[in-house]
Amino acid sequence: MKKIFSILSLIVGLAVFAQKIPTVMKTEFSQIALQDKVVDTKGSSLTLENVIKEYNGQIVVLDLWATWCGDCIKGMPKLKELKANNPDVKFVYLSMDKTEEAWKKGVEKYQIEGDHYYMGNNWKNEFATSIDLNWIPRYLILDQEGKIAKYYSVKAEDPEVQTTIDQLRKKE
User: Fold this and answer.
1) What's this model's pTM, rounded to 2 decimal places?
2) Taking a C-beta distance cutoff of 8 angstroms, is the pair 103, 67 a contact?
3) What is its subcellular localisation (predicted)?
């Protein structure tokens, strides 16, 4: 009986804390979310709106991650493979690490090439709330105008990620 209770408790626990796929797939960031601040690798503070505008005209893979996130680290080889297969796509990493030091050490340790920004360990900021962030890693694909083309993916090898990139290329 104890064993059955333990198994049922585990199943219920997993169901309660499991990630939930958003029911609405958004195509734009709210203006208030775009005003959240991030820090670049040089220590400068800027808004997410400024970050996204920097890539205007390009396809962007936006990766929300952290060094403490086992799934993020486990998925890095597939993310690097996606990047290697799409050299024309910009990869932008938004770290939710607990400290800037951990973030910078993680970028170096895992040899993550791309553009990096530190969001801080804040799941309650406007940006995170606006995109229904409930799990990392989380990948969003932005089109050439900075709009969201792929709203929700938690695996770099999700076939829809590459399909979305390919569809955006056809629009160029």
Assistant:
1) 0.84
2) yes
3) Cell envelope
**124-138, pLDDT tens digit by residue?**
788 888 888 888 999
Domain boundaries defined on the chain: 22-171
Residue whose structure tokens are 């990766």: 63
Q: How many residues does the chain have?
A: 172
Residues 6+ apart with CB under 8 A from 129: 33
Q: Is the dihedral of CA 42, 46, 48, 51 positive or negative?
A: negative
d(CA 67, CA 116): 13
Which amino acid is present at 69?
C
Q: Which CATH code for domain 22-171?
A: 3.40.30.10
